[in-house]
Design a protein that fits this description.
The protein is of the alpha/beta class. Helices cover 38% and strands 24% of the residues. A 6-stranded mixed sheet has the order 6-7-8-3-9-10, sandwiched between helices. Helix 3 crosses helix 4 and helix 5 packs parallel to helix 6. It is globular and about 55 Å long.
Amino acid sequence: MSRPLLQVENLSVRYHTGRHRVDAVREVSFDLSRGRCLGVVGESGSGKSSLARAVLGLEEQVTGRVDFEGQAVLNMTREARLAFRRRAQIVFQDPVGSLNPRMKVGVALGEVLRVHGLVASRVEGDAQVRTWLETVGMDPVYAGRFPHELSGGQRQRVNLARALCVGAELLVADEPVSALDVSVQAQILNLLQALQKSRGITWMLIGHDLAVMHHMADEVLVMQKGEVVERGSADEVFRHPSHPYTRELIAAAPSVERALKRRTAEGPSLGLKELASPVQD
């Protein structure tokens, strides 16, 4: 059996605010195999985002172990960390705040490619920018637009292009569609799923929308107060939840029950039409 791309063992994140100590993540362990999607679900304050940032080495007060292809992320040298930054990327919730408002889309993407030494000339960079915009379903003409001239869905597509163009193998998506209109959410989620299949992307999906998690994730971690209270395949967790907290979350989200019933009736190929009807974003 091949080694998981990502292995997390007894990971904890602790914040200090004055005299107070907050244990944001407590002794979390999991494996994530290449080409799979792990969903991390829980209410606000459950530790989801802190876990995501810690996995990428973006938190300081961390104990435990994070291995990426056998390399210890938390103890990497500067050179190794720079290489890891290319292979593991994050897509944030706010597509507006993630982009420089003074940079046109093409300039921003081209700068990323040049900084990482992935293009030898501006001409090559422009060609790569066009290719990556097309990869995320955008017309290359948008390379000449500023972020404020794009819709929310288009801005998030640009963020995906920026993460993928450097060769990301692990993508951490922290509430990637919660700031978008419901009609656009399905388009972005379908794009993520297509990229997973076509490019073998491994990713963590952080969120609180259980219907989305059930559709997108292969496995699910349910977090409460910094701890993992339930873990298993998405179908098993949502059909047969064993922890009272998971049952409470599902009871508070009737769309999950409707999706489960429809999936049972129509078969496993049921897609995101159960969440929203895609329209042009």
